[in-house]
Amino acid sequence: MRALSSFREFKPPELDFVQQFKMGELVVDAGATIFLEGSDSPHIYTLLEGWALRYRMLESGRRQVLNFALPGDLIGLQSVLFDKMLHSVQALTPVRLCVFSRQRLWELYERHSGLAYDLTWIASREESILAEHLTYVGQRNALARLAYIIMHVMERCRKLGLVVNDTLATPITQQDLGDAMGLSIVHTNKTLRRLTATGAIEWRRGGIVVRNAAELTRLADYEKRETQPRPFI
Amino acid sequence: MRALSSFREFKPPELDFVQQFKMGELVVDAGATIFLEGSDSPHIYTLLEGWALRYRMLESGRRQVLNFALPGDLIGLQSVLFDKMLHSVQALTPVRLCVFSRQRLWELYERHSGLAYDLTWIASREESILAEHLTYVGQRNALARLAYIIMHVMERCRKLGLVVNDTLATPITQQDLGDAMGLSIVHTNKTLRRLTATGAIEWRRGGIVVRNAAELTRLADYEKRETQPRPFI
DNA sequence: CGTTACCTTGAATCTCCTCAATACACGTGG
DNA sequence: CCACGTGTATTGAGGAGATTCAAGGTAACG
Description:
The structure is a homodimer.
Chain A (H helix, E strand, L loop, with lengths): L11 H10 E7 L4 E3 L7 E7 L2 E6 L5 E7 L4 E2 L2 H4 L6 E4 L3 E7 L3 H7 L1 H27 L2 H18 L3 E2 L2 E3 L4 H8 L3 H13 L3 E4 L2 E4 L2 H8 L13
Antiparallel strand pairs in A: 1-8, 2-7, 3-6, 3-8, 4-5, 4-7, 9-10, 10-12, 11-12
The structure holds a DNA duplex.
């Protein structure tokens, strides 16, 4: 419930609306497909707990990971705006979802302009994340790409309190990282070993440790672009 | 004025609002920067005439072209939602812009839920275009990437009536294409020559001719994802 | 204790990049 | 009208980075 509100305070009527907007909860197994590209679902979700993956599958068998979905993330907005989903979403762990009705979204736009604004904001933030990924995949080498995507995930998880002792427990595999940054699994592995060798991070089965955050940022050749949301007045 | 409405019919009150929402027109020279990354503008625009480029510049001098802006496109929504632009926008030709006030956007959300919905829709469509670009840059080779980006531009321009006799007059350079698809200028050129040699397209100074659309689609290894907007009820 | 998913490493190959040089088109000023 | 500068396109050569193929190794799980 608080998931959506991670970036601002709700007003009481908004909270009421969101509360009755909620249709229930759904729990899916690890590995299950939450949305299939091309499908048309009557629901949208917010992720309450667990990890998920947004991706596009090609006929060749190749996969482009678009982003990771974390608690608080809205999933399936596209199936509201378009007549079908344009990417798939898969659970990486057992996942708990909050279910909303697609129908009642019209009401949201008519009665709660603040929440409508938030939806535009969410869509636009997703866009800017993809823009950043695209910039890395298009313009940087494997080492910088992997350093970046690890930074990106760590940073988001840090804000959610999922990072303890600079350690993040995550179901992400090297295959996932490679598919996100347009690298083969072999090159991903070799580059990840190089990255570990610098002492910036440690890669473990089921976890990532950041040993030297400054070095990681440097290796990612990261140019900070801090943004603040502009609140709805 | 009709630019924004390219995808649906406006209701009379919405039309009224948009009409008085407009603050005037702005004309900029070819090469001028419309938005600079990191800046904070009190205006947003729609492109009425001409070509523009959305891109991110890196300190290293490399550039990632995110997308091309065409007549009807909204420019600068990010400066409303965030406290700054996260990419730059540059005019490729002399450009005519319709200027709107950022302030009055709140009004739009409060009084015209249909238009608010449209803004979310626009943001989400931009996201899905970036997802498709990312998929190409991440998963396909130079030939498919270039075939794709040319298809993409031609398709959008076709809908705007800018393509006559399968020919598009465009200010896009090989450098632009390369920066969009993450390829060096040299490799872009060589691959473009190969693409021309197949007979699929013809590359001219200031123009692209599609000689064999089916072949171009095949070379792009394109998997069609037709979408319809879901109208606001 | 065997199966499965994930990680690791070496070798050969190829795509794509950088460097370098040249050609072509267009506009400007002498 | 021609010389010149500038932005764009073209081509060759050499090399770095990434891919594919192939073969193991390791941890988790029933």
